[in-house]
Structure formats: C-alpha cells, structure tokens
Write a structure and sequence with these properties.
19 strands, 430 residues, 14 helices, alpha/beta, 2 domains, Spore germination protein, hydrolase, TIM Barrel, Membrane-bound Lytic Murein Transglycosylase D, Chain A, 8-stranded parallel β-barrel, 5-stranded antiparallel β-sheet, 34% helix
C-alpha cells in the first residue's frame, strides 16, 4: 500500500477510480467517518506496491520531475510523500523531505504493545483487532509499593486472549503510584536491599503464577543519583528471570547524549542497561505532551537524534522503537500551565474532516496538525500521527536495523499503522 495526499477538489469516488479500488475499501483502510467529505492534506492509504517514506536531501537545481525519475517513482507519488507540487511552494536545495521507498523484501521484526487492561471484554476486543501483529503484550502495570509488594493489574482476560493469539505477555513493573511516576518511591525501593529483594521475589512469584513470558521494567522520573542503584536492580532481576526461562526488558526514556546528572534522564545508563537486558522499548514519543506547549508528539528529527545516540551504545538488534498511537488537542493561545486532551490518531483525522479544516504538514518533524474552532468559538490545535508520518517512522526500522517497534498505547485506533506494518514486515511470534 502507499500514501495518497488529498488536494482541494478531490472526491473519494474519483480517488478510488484513479487508484483502481472501491470507496468501500478506502473507507475501511482509513476508517473514514463518512464517504462524501474529505479535506486537503488528508493522507489516505491506497492500493499499490508496499511503500514506506524515507528522508531525502534535495539536490541543487533539482526539480520534482528529476527527483521522481532518479527515485524510480511517479510524479504523483513524489508529490504525495514530499508535500510539494509544481504549482505550489518550491522545495529548496539542502532541504530534507520525505520520498517514497519501495519495500522489496520484508524484514522480520518483533512488535510490542502496551495495554492498560480493564478486566472487561474491551480487552479482548482490542487484542482481537491487532493481536496478529503483536509479538509481546506488555501489561501496564504491576505497581511496586514501598514495602516491596506489587499492586496487581486486572489482566485475566487479556492474558487469556494473548495466549489465543500466540502473544508473549510481559509483566510491566513500574514506580507508578496511580497518579505519577513517583521519584521517592523508586528511591526507597532501589536504595533498600531488603525491600528490593522482597520486590524481586514478589515479581517472580506472580510472573510464574500468571504465566508471564517476561518482565518489563518501566521505572521513570528517578533521581539521577539513583543511576547505579537502578543498574544494580536490573542486573539482579536478570539473574533470577533468565533461569526461569523468561525475558528481561525495560522501557527507556529518550535522550541524545549521556548526561548522568540530568533530571529524569540522568538515571538511564544506556550502555550498561543495554548490556543487561534482552531487549528494550525506547520511548521515542511525548515531546508534545499533556502539560506542555503544542508540538508534534514524536517529531521525526527528534526520534532520529535519539536513535543516533542509542544505536551508538546499544546493539540496534535490542531496540524496539516506540511509536505513539495518539495525539493531543491543545487550546490556543496556549496558556501557561494549560492542559491538552489526548486523542487517538484516527479520531484526530476524522475530527479534521468533521470540522472541514485542512490538515497541514510540518516538514522538520514530519508530522500533521490542524486548527479548528469549537462551538464556543475556542480555537484549538491538534498534533497527531497519520499514514504518512508513521510510514516515515516505520522506515527507521530498516534504516537503523532495529529489532522492531513498541506501541503506546493499545486501544487507540490507528488502522493505517497496522496495514502499513503488515505490508512492510513479517512479525515474529515468540
């Protein structure tokens, strides 16, 4: 499948005729909210050779037609991926744009998805939708307590369905206290040998009784000074996990260099942790976040910078790159201390269609966004991921030779992602 960019005047039936498919299939692949209404800038998945998006630096004096010939793609495809057209603003030498990249041979990768289980049939429905594309299911979360015990998740239904789909369930152990990742809670556990040993024992007892295939640790917002203690905790966990036939993985916060004293990220010793675990989930998202100013959730340039550093100190075959299944909706002008509302990527797409506002493209972050007004005439801006932006992120798996990808968080609808994943990779069941 490939990406088609809607322009002013496009109608779904006309697009369907042009790409030799039906409007019904276009609606299904893109989960469109209606058949008759589109907006400029909307990125649709359409039939075609398996195609991802790669970055390309424009050469001096090079036009669209010359670049299309060099890349071996049609002019229409190049326009859809680069977001440039002969009649519009011209690209410039040295500018980085997206261009199509044919997938001629699928790589086999591993895929993780985080789930916040409710203990209801909703969990089963989520896994029935995407289970065939998952290697691992990380249950979020088993919350560590200050006495070394664990608060359990409501995961019976999720574990049962995971087994049915051949998905290896991972117990995600966190320092999340129900409201936030608790800095002092992490320190209490890591700094006290008896509490730490009690926690390790409790982890293994529950992991065995619940049938988990591995342990995934997601400690965040730790003190930078707790860096050696966290390394020690992961090392000790590995010594008891592997003899039990389970894998050990961690969620790792994103950074572009090692600064041991940096707040929050200083505690993550990439080189040491990468050597201690079997694989890791690199959290390459949340630049745009609920409590911050409007921007892309996972800007491609920032994701690249994190991968450049991570792969310099961790074998890329251990890295599952994080991909967000959500965006954020912010008020404008953004007030100091303002809060955004989370929104599923597919919901964001259909909100733009409902409000009949064009979807714009931000080239440095390779991300879509749009502005709209509520019925109360409040102006808002939405940043999200779509078929084109996730296509560029999936291509990084090939470019950096990564182990695979990890999704936060299952239950947010993003059909184009799963179709592209299926089209571009073989998913290993472990």
């Amino acid at each position: 499948m490939r990406v088609y960019t809607v322009v002013a005047g496009d109608e779904l039936r006309g697009i369907a005729d042009r790409v030799e498919t039906t409007t019904r299939d276009l609606i299904r692949w893109n989960e469109l909210s209606g058949e008759d209404v589109l907006v400029p800038g909307l990125h649709l998945l359409v039939p075609g050779p398996a195609t991802l998006a790669q970055t390309y630096r424009v050469r001096r004096g090079e036009g669209l037609e010359q670049a299309a010939r060099r890349l071996g793609v049609t002019l229409e495809e190049l326009e859809s991926y680069s977001q440039f057209r002969p009649a519009g603003p011209q690209w410039q030498a040295g500018q980085t744009v997206l261009v199509p990249r044919r997938v001629t041979r699928k790589r086999t990768i591993e895929v993780n998805g985080y789930l916040l289980p409710e203990g209801t049939p909703t969990d089963a429905g989520i896994l029935q939708d995407v289970g065939r594309w998952l290697s691992y299911l990380s249950i979020f979360s088993y919350q560590a307590r200050a006495d070394g015990t664990l608060a359990e998740a409501k995961d019976d239904i999720a574990l049962e369905v995971a087994k049915r789909y051949g998905i290896a369930p991972l117990m995600t152990v966190t320092n999340f206290d129900g409201n936030t990742f608790n800095t002092e809670l992490a320190h209490t556990i890591l700094a006290n040998g008896s509490i730490r040993r009690r926690l390790l024992d409790h982890i293994m007892r529950l992991a065995r009784s619940q049938g988990f295939r591995g342990i995934n640790v997601d400690f965040e917002h730790m003190r930078p000074s707790d860096r050696p203690l966290y390394n020690q905790f992961i090392r000790e966990l590995g010594r008891i996990v592997r003899p039990a036939g389970m894998s050990l993985s961690i969620a790792l916060g994103p950074k572009t260099r090692d600064e041991p004293t940096a707040q929050w990220m200083g505690a993550f010793d990439y080189r040491t942790l990468g050597a201690e675990v079997d694989f890791l989930m690199l959290m390459t998202y949340e630049w745009g976040w609920v409590g911050g100013p409007p921007m892309a959730v996972a800007p491609l340039d920032q994701v690249r910078a994190v991968l450049d550093y991570a792969t310099s100190v961790i074998p890329p075959q251990k890295i599952l790159m994080g991909i967000s299944l959500y965006g954020y909706d912010w008020p404008l002008p953004y007030p100091a201390g303002g809060r955004a509302s989370g929104i599923a990527n597919n919901t964001a797409q259909n909100l733009a269609i409902r409000e009949q506002v064009p979807i714009q493209w931000h080239h440095p972050s390779a991300s879509p966004f749009f502005r709209y007004r509520t019925r109360a005439l409040e102006e808002r801006v939405v940043w999200f991921d779509d078929a084109l932006s996730v296509s560029a992120k999936l291509n990084l798996v090939y470019e950096y030779n990564l182990r695979g990808v990890s999704y936060w968080v299952l239950g947010n609808s993003f059909p184009q992602n799963w179709y592209l994943l299926d089209d571009s990779f073989e998913v290993r069941k472990v």
